[in-house]
């Protein structure tokens, strides 16, 4: 369920609004041009009855929104006003999600900047890009062309920066089997929580058969290890040791790359 409300206030001669919304997680993919607005969004503008037929002149397109600042998942946007002879009734902020227009906020006609809340990325995804644009609706119900699109990146909490983890992979093979230890060290300044390690085997014959200190799974060559309740937090400077037993068909090369909660890790 999506609930959207707006609250407007004025300071320093300019209008600023706050739009509050609760969204499910989703993935936004940039497309050009911006898709047309949805025909049946929630919280429509208040417009005059369309009898007789509405004006055939829609508002001018709002200016491409600019990002004033981002705090966690709160985004402060600003855009240039639309012009319409009948007056602007409201502005809609839309998100382009894989080519589908999803309305995320409604602002009063005098408001040309405001704050909205976007969804955090899904679990174990370090960041997610949202593509936002604005349309105007006049008092007769005419809808403007969409503005240009601005991309906003939302991160999961305060993520460790790239290079804030180190992985040491040590494997001992025999005939058609192997035993492998993986030491993961947090070299950054933020705690990894509910961690997940991801890597891909370099040889298609390598398989995980059992493991310890993590929940292990494998799809094709892609392997994931998910934290246990007792070791789910890895504080700065700490290390943890996990491992697995496996099989191979003659070659047992180490993986080329490791990602820890989506962060690329260094290898000594």
TrEMBL record:
Biased composition (Low complexity): 31-50
Annotated signal sequence range: 1-30
Any Pfam family hit: CBM_2
Region (Disordered): 31-65
Fibronectin type-III domain ranges (all copies): 61-157
Domain (CBM2): residue spans on this chain: 158-268
Bias kind Pro residues: ranges: 51-62
Keyword Transmembrane helix: no
InterPro entries in UniProt: CBD2, CBM2/CBM3_carb-bd_dom_sf, CBM2_carb-bd_dom_sf, FN3_dom, FN3_sf, Ig-like_fold
UniProt keyword terms in alphabetical order: Carbohydrate metabolism, Glycosidase, Hydrolase, Polysaccharide degradation, Signal
Entry-linked PROSITE patterns: CBM2, FN3
UniProt name for this protein: CBM2 domain-containing protein
UniProt source species: Streptosporangium longisporum
